[in-house]
Amino acid sequence: MQNKNVAYDSKVEGEVIVTQADAVINWIRKHSVWPMPMGLACCAIELMAAGGSRFDISRFGMEVMRFSPRQADCMIVAGTVTYKMAEVIRRIYEQMAEPKWVVAMGACASTGGMYRSYATLQGVDRIIPVDVYISGCPPRPEALLDAMIKLQDKIGRERSVKNLTARKAETAEELELAGAGKES
Ligand code: SF4
User: Fold this and answer.
1) Predicted local distance difference test score (pLDDT) of residue 33
2) Ligand 1 lined by 79 (C-beta under 6 Å)
3) Radius of gyration over alpha carbons of the chain, in Å?
4) The whole model's pTM is what?
5) Which of 42, 43, 81, 125 is least enclosed by beta carbons within 10 angstroms?
6) What's the CA gap between 73 and 114, in Å, rounded?
7) Alpha-carbon gap, residue 29 to 23, rounded angstroms
8) Which fold does the domain 31-157 belong to in CATH?
9) Which of these, 57, 15, 16, 33, lies nearest to 155 by C-alpha position?
């Protein structure tokens, strides 16, 4: 299938390729996802298996699991989210730089799973936005890879330039408000 994002004109000397900024930015982003492994329970074992040679998540350039939120852009929530951990998860999510994405791996992370109890959050999307959900208890490593491919597709459709401009305007507004606060 022809890639509509790229136009190649063989008549132009020097092999010039014309494309859109969104296409380039999204292409770079989707092939350099650095996951933040938020392993909370049994699903984390399947997440670890995805890094092994049998499933080999590095085929997608995602093997660089970062335990530092400042060097990660995709949180994979793998396991049961208790209320005790919820605050920690949100804090780590907030420390991750934009743009960032979240994958809810398994029934527990997506909905609370079988734990309909006072101690369990009924889905991590109650505290942070989730981009892709994975069903299963536990989902197999292949399911995680499938979700990561779906996430790549989603990143590929983002309006990156527009989002960057909007974020820049928001930051300028925040700085202006902070400056006004100091003066008063
Ligand atoms: S979904 Fe199943 S395997 Fe995953 S954390 Fe919950 S109970 Fe464990």
Assistant:
1) 95
2) yes
3) 20
4) 0.85
5) 42
6) 29
7) 10
8) Rossmann fold (3.40.50)
9) 33
